[in-house]
Amino acid sequence: MVSLTTPVCDFDQPAIDFNLSDVDGQVWTLEKAKGENGLLVVFMCNHCPYIKAILPRLVEDARILKEDFGVNTIAIMSNDQTLYEEDSDENMKRVSEEMNFSFPYVMDKSQGVAKDYGAVCTPDFFGYNKYLKLQYRGRFDASRKDAAPEGSRRDLFQAMKEVAETGKGPLEQVPSMGCSIKWKDENN
């Protein structure tokens, strides 16, 4: 398992459209996914220890961002599913149900969306304002393969709250760290 960090935020880069099916077969596009005050695009998977360390808090923060701040979330799984059974369609559906996701969990089977976005790891967060201009590309919090200590700064939540309220993200952002996206051989 290779650990990578994300590049710095390319402020105001426009979000890239997609057309992806979720775990229930519903098709999602950028327009359908966006919220009144923004959109959080999360590249994630089921097997990654970095995701496991934050998932319960990510689910809760996504719910609050949606309900209180008008920021929707969409989770995109772009890994080669043949490499990890835990990332299968069935397990994606199971995890989304068990964790009570309030957001769609979609499959990027071609890995084209991950490539278009420049996603490099799980988790990789792209936080957009209501105009779908990039304002955040940083970490969830100080968590790594283990959850951050109780009371740690909620970098992602605070940034997306700021985006919802002002349209702008914080100038200082700490890169996210996670497992490399598992690319199919033809994508290397």
In short:
This protein has 188 residues and is an alpha+beta fold.
Describe this structure in words.
With 188 residues, the chain is an alpha+beta fold. It has a single domain (3-182), classed as 3-Layer(aba) Sandwich (Glutaredoxin), CATH 3.40.30. Helix content is 28%, strand content 21%. The chain has five helices and ten strands. The protein has helices at residues 30-33, 49-69, 89-98, 112-117, 155-166, and strands at residues 3-5, 19-21, 27-29, 38-43, 71-77, 105-107, 121-122, 124-129, 134-136, 177-180. The protein has a five-stranded mixed beta sheet. A three-stranded antiparallel beta sheet has the order 1-10-7, with helices on one face. A two-stranded antiparallel ribbon has the order 2-3. α2 links the parallel β4 (38-43) and β5 (71-77). α2 (49-69) runs parallel beside α5 (155-166). The longest helix is centred in the N-terminal third of the chain and has 21 residues, at 49-69. The chain is globular and about 40 Å long. It starts with a strand and ends in an 8-residue tail after the last strand.
Give me the secondary-structure topology.
Layout: E1 3-5, E2 19-21, E3 27-29, H1 30-33, E4 38-43, H2 49-69, E5 71-77, H3 89-98, E6 105-107, H4 112-117, E7 121-122, E8 124-129, E9 134-136, H5 155-166, E10 177-180
Parallel strand pairs: 4-5, 5-6
Antiparallel strand pairs: 1-10, 2-3, 4-8, 7-10, 8-9
Helix pairs in contact: 2-5
